């Protein structure tokens, strides 16, 4: 099975830290964000498709063509037009089912192992901390834990299921056109296409995250 890691972004909210280093190579302790992610991949994964962009040569020189026995294939996203666009660039090298992860978020291995048990799935985290008036990406489900919709601009509330941005997809994803990440956005969003798949009757299972760390700002670079 393949895993796609989207690691092309600028990491602007990291301020000075990403002026000379791509965000996925920033460290917590003695390991980079990418090392944590690669170490936690399910055993089923034998190839990693790494989407690189900003300072991508540093990522290539760090990992080269293999990591822990897993082949690494690099796909360059020169024009940063969102997660949907990044995944579209991977289409020629993908086959069957594949796992998709963000390059800066950290996940528990057992959660990813649970994700790959289902034909199509998405990782969700119960929201506990948020600011008044904040909006988050909410996953709406039925009583059996199947996705009904993904609302990228839901008003944050305690206990809602937030999109933790880890997915298992298959090639049927590419039967759907890329969809804008927002009403006036020039970027294309993976969740927006996945929501259309659900509305068209595709069955997508949610897996509740036991642990998920979103790394957005310098203060997040700690456990």
Shape: globular
What structural class do helix, strand and pairing data support?
alpha/beta
Instruction: Calculate the mean pLDDT score and round it.
Output: 96
The CATH superfamily is identified as: Spore Coat Polysaccharide Biosynthesis Protein SpsA, Chain A
Briefly note the CATH topology name: Spore Coat Polysaccharide Biosynthesis Protein SpsA, Chain A
Helix and strand run:
EEEHEHEEHEEHEEEEHEE
What does the main sheet amount to?
8 strands, mixed
Strand order of the largest sheet: 5-6-4-1-7-12-9-13
The portion of residues assigned to helices is 10-25%
State the low-pLDDT regions, or none. Answer: none
Q: Architecture, CATH level 2?
A: Alpha-Beta Complex
Domain module tally: 1
Q: How many beta-strand runs?
A: 14
What oligomeric assembly is this protein in?
single chain
Distance between the termini: 30 Å
What CATH first level would be assigned? Alpha Beta
Explain what you see.
By secondary structure, the protein is α/β, with parallel strands linked by helices. The protein has one domain: Spore Coat Polysaccharide Biosynthesis Protein SpsA, Chain A, CATH 3.90.550. Helix content is 18%, strand content 32%. The protein is built from five helices and 14 strands. It has helices spanning 33-39, 56-63, 83-90, 109-115, 190-199, and strands spanning 2-7, 27-28, 31-32, 47-52, 66-67, 70-76, 97-102, 106-107, 121-126, 135-141, 147-155, 161-170, 205-208, 212-213. Strands 5-6-4-1-7-12-9-13 form an eight-stranded mixed sheet, sandwiched between helices. It has a two-stranded antiparallel sheet with strand order 2-3. A two-stranded antiparallel sheet has the order 8-14. α3 packs across α5. The longest helix is centred in the C-terminal third of the chain and has 10 residues, at 190-199. It starts with a strand and ends in a 10-residue tail after the last strand. The model has no long low-confidence stretch (mean pLDDT 96).
